[in-house]
Amino acid sequence: MYLFYAPDIAQTPVLPEEESNHCVQVLRRTAGDEIQVTDGVGNLYHCVITNPHRKHCEVRIERVETPVPLHEGHIHICIAPTKNIDRTEWAIEKCVEMGVDEITLLLCDHSERKTVNIDRLQKILVSAAKQSLKTRFPILHPMTKMTDLQIAGDRFIAHCIEGYKASDNKYALQQCVQRGHATTVLIGAEGDFSPAEVEWALANGYKPVSLGAARLRTETAAIVACHTVVLINE
Q1: DSSP for 129-190?
Q2: For position 166, what pLDDT does the model report?
Q3: Are 140 and 121 within 8 A, CB to CB?
Q4: Which of 57, 89, 122, 189 is the most buried (most CB within 10 A)?
């Protein structure tokens, strides 16, 4: 099964140019073929191709489904982009495959990368969502300072500052996540969060958590956090 993406399909039953080209030129779909299309907000459209044009493939919608979400709650991962952007792209791809609902790119005190190509990251997100047959695509937020975050629900910060006064109060993330709750986990830069950032997080309702005994790379930490929350909510 291949899933196509057309955000406006309910109003305009035509695949976007890139999707049309892939459908007609690459996959060799033709008139009368059945395809499945999502609008990215939770709906699955069962369609029949009526005009297999490589730039604007027209379809007829036969029926619409709204699949049940694969997990409960709402999973939000905030990650500081790595100096090597390939690692961040990989983390986003894997988090999307697992079922993350929202991703925010963090600008931290120790961030070595302060800008990103948000359009490229959005394309990677869409590709991963289609590949893993998601009908509801995650929200991707641009670079955001921690102090500008306004997040409700259960909030956690995964820092690894040795000897920090709050470290003794850290619990394993899997012990803190509550099934069905909106859950946000902050993952810092390659140099970790600064003490000032941890202070801010604790003062604003974030609980310090551990992702295990091993010291993890930023992108690995994001994936571990996402996977932990997803498993508890499945």
Answers
A1: HHHTT-SBPPEEEEEEEGGG----SEEEEE---TT-TTGGG-EEHHHH--TTSEEEEEE--T
A2: 47
A3: yes
A4: 57
